Amino acid sequence: xxxxxxxxxxxxxxxxxxxxxxxxxxxxxxxxxxxxxxxxxxxxxxxxxxxxxxxxxxxxxxxxxxxxxxxxxxxxxxxxxxxxxxxxxxxxxxxxxxxxxxxxxxxxxxxxxxxxxx
Length: 118
What we know:
Elements lengths: L1 E5 L2 E4 L4 E8 L7 E7 L6 E7 L5 E3 L7 E7 L2 E6 L8 E8 L7 E4 L3 E6 L1
Parallel strand pairs: 2-11
Antiparallel strand pairs: 1-3, 3-8, 4-5, 4-9, 5-6, 7-8, 9-10, 9-11
């Protein structure tokens, strides 16, 4: 599976960004697809995932109520991020979810940088 992220950037605290992921290849080996983030000095964090069978969504506690994941069409996944804070600064990767727990990932893209100032 190939995954390519876009949409990151620099935003002021309280602002919004929308990340997109274009993916290709078969997802049949995976439970879901979603996003994880990696900040310097911090552990990788599964941010949000959606299962492929029934579309159930998962959100990390740190982003609940602010982020929204959606599968826009057959090959595009989005992450709408609102009310951003400096704690959200990280590289965001689109990834395949191996187990449905949004914590073990199989393939992922190079990532897109999100920087929140203020």
